[in-house]
Amino acid sequence: MSYDKLPLEPLFAKIDELKPQFISRLEKAIAIPSVSGDESLRPKVFEMSAFLVQELTNLGFDDIQLKDLGIQPPPVNDPKLQLPPIVLGKYGNDPAKKTVLVYGHYDVQPALKEDGWATEPFTMYHDTAKDILYGRGSTDDKGPVIGWLNVIQAHRELGWEFPVNLVVCFEGMEESGSLGLDELVAKEAKQYFKDVEQVTISDNYWLGTTKPVLTYGLRGCNYYQVIVEGPGADLHSGIFGGIIAEPMTDLIKVLSTLVDSSGQILIPGIKDMVAPLTDKEDKLYDAIDFSVEELNAAAGSKTSLHDNKKDILKHRWRYPSLSLHGIEGAFSGSGAKTVIPAKVIGKFSIRTVPNIESKKLDELVFKFAEEQFAKLGSPNKFKIELIHDGNYWVSDPFNASFQAASKATQDVWNIVPDFTREGGSIPITLTFEKELGVDVLLLPMGRGDDGAHSINEKLDVSNYINGCKTLGGYLHYYAKA
Ligand SMILES: [Zn+2]
Predict the structure, then answer these.
(1) Region 262-283: what's the mean pLDDT?
(2) Measured in angstroms, how far is the CA atom of residue 394 from the centroid of ligand 1?
(3) pLDDT tens-place string over residues 442-453
(4) Which of 69, 105, 201, 330 is 20 to 30 Å from the Cα of 142, by its Cα?
């Protein structure tokens, strides 16, 4: 471990000492069922924002603001449904210090005991034998949000000066598409966020269960639909089979040309846009704690396309993939219905990576699919369109914030973290990078098996408490970088 260690032991000891208070603060947050996707619980999302304002006030934050985002656009049952506010706050305002923005979200996924939870999802259950905290939002994302507040409390009780100016941005619609957030960030970029030099997001997870990670890349996603339309209504195959051009046959023909069974994308030109693998990047994969067995366990099968760790991770993180998702309008029930669907819509998406240009990708995809359909000589109508796109993100794992987070992780966990990417996307990452023009660091607290959107969501106490130490330590190292 070749770096100058900062004397952070008193901070870590204070965090250990405050553990019971920190657990009880998280318990209070979990008790508020701030489910953004359930309109009937919207008052609880507001209650959660008020809870945070109270906590920020108690901790001595300045300029606390609740940013009103107006009425939620359709589809909604209540046309006057208010969006929950974005909670902003500032801790410290010293021009000699760096200013770090931390983002988190205070809304959660829905959860019902009947879904299969072992305990009430909104009553935190501390399994003391395993030292695990169960409850909706424990790891996603109330644990990390509360973690930042805990770090400030620890400094206050120690009488330590806070190493940076901290700006918090907590949103209440993350699990429901982050409505209003992009606009707010753009609007405040030169106002509330004007001094921000770095953004840290703690809203993802370790790759596995034992080794801390820092995340420096996310794939993007371009989602398409292919529409094939023929007869004016669904028809019976006993009457029309063999005498009419069937949309489903055309659709399947076209979809089958996009990707092969080994995962190769067959659309020409996409591979050429992928950034070449450098030696430095390739080496990062060597250390990563991951195995084919872990993939099999996560997938619930032994159907991996790759037989070694590095290939699996590269194909998950740094190469594009094309997945066929479904066919709208097709017969999908059980039994033997003899329908000829009149109109079918095939859905597929491409996970994108550096340096795929989104618009160029659309052009390649449209051109190829249209050519494939034309080859069929079908009288049916064909259309392909983009439903939505989100760009990929990649940062420099050797920059100041990643190196600061790496040192803090080593102090706390006694191990060099893995530098990982994710195959999915966290759109807010790009928004901050683009609007504020600063580096973003993804610094996860929880483990890969926390069950963020599933039943029995949990956060290990060790991840919570060591997570607080890591967040705090990171700010100290970053301040000195
Ligand atoms: Zn989250």
Answers:
(1) 96
(2) 19
(3) 999 999 999 999
(4) 69
**CATH classification of the domain holding 40:** 3.40.630.10
Alpha carbon of 93 to ligand 1 centroid (Å): 28
Which residue, 355, 390, 425, sits at the end of a domain? 390
Whether this prediction's pTM lies above 0.85 is answered by yes
Task: Please identify every residue whose CB atom is under 5 Å from ligand 1, which is an ion.
Answer: 140-141, 203
pLDDT value, residue 427: 85
For 130-169, the pLDDT digits (tens) are 999 999 999 999 999 999 999 999 999 999 999 999 999 9
User: How many angstroms does the Cα of residue 315 sit away from the middle of ligand 1?
Assistant: 24
pLDDT in tens, 91-123: 999 999 999 999 999 999 999 999 999 999 999
What's residue 1's pLDDT?
A: 52
- Cα(462) to ligand 1 centroid in Å equals 19
User: Do both 230 and 362 map to the same domain?
Assistant: yes
Range of the domain at 422: 9-218+393-480
Same-domain status, 82 and 184: yes
Distance 175 CA to ligand 1 centre (A): 7
* Size (the chain), residues: 481
* C-alpha 106 – ligand 1 centre gap (Å): 9
Residue numbers annotated as active site = 107, 174
pLDDT at 301 over 70: yes
Span 352-378, average pLDDT? 97
Rounded to 5 degrees, φ, ψ at 335 are 95, -165
Query: Is 196 a member of any domain?
Result: yes
% of the chain at pLDDT higher than 70? 100
Please give the tally of structural domains in the chain.
Answer: 2
Span 79-96, mean pLDDT? 97
